[in-house]
Amino acid sequence: MNAAARVRREKVWMQAAAMFEESKPSMKIAAELRVSPKSVRKWRRRWTDGGTAALASSGPGGSDCKLSDEQLGELAGLLDRGPVEHGWVDARWTLVRVVEVIERRFGVSYTLRGVSYLLHRIGYSQQVPTRRATERAPEAIATWHRRRWPSVRG
């Protein structure tokens, strides 16, 4: 969740706290704030236990990154060199392979989902492989399209 969403969410919590002070019922608060009654009841318990301060945002969720900024830069360099450079025979990165590279190089273990988030954060996106052979011969393909394809197509 980004900072703007956290601010919006905290604003709703503060509105709810003001309504708690007025002793408004949870159903009415939920309707006014357009949230579920269950959420309002949860917020009211927190407010009862710790006041308005208990409703304040505790910051972004999730765990801290296990790699430093320098290591993230190094990881990007390792990935840019390609999987063949790291011992795999085909030129496709998979999450399992990236996990293995991170463990080998940095001694840190990640889950597949964690690596997916990490790659997204450093600017990589999921790609559908074109599945083209590395031995591909463009001239032979062009010749086949010119000579053979018309008869195949009918």
UniProtKB/TrEMBL annotation:
Matching InterPro entries: Homeodomain-like_sf, Winged_HTH_dom
Domain Winged helix-turn helix span(s) in chain numbering: 90-146
Protein name: Winged helix-turn helix domain-containing protein
Organism: Actinoplanes couchii
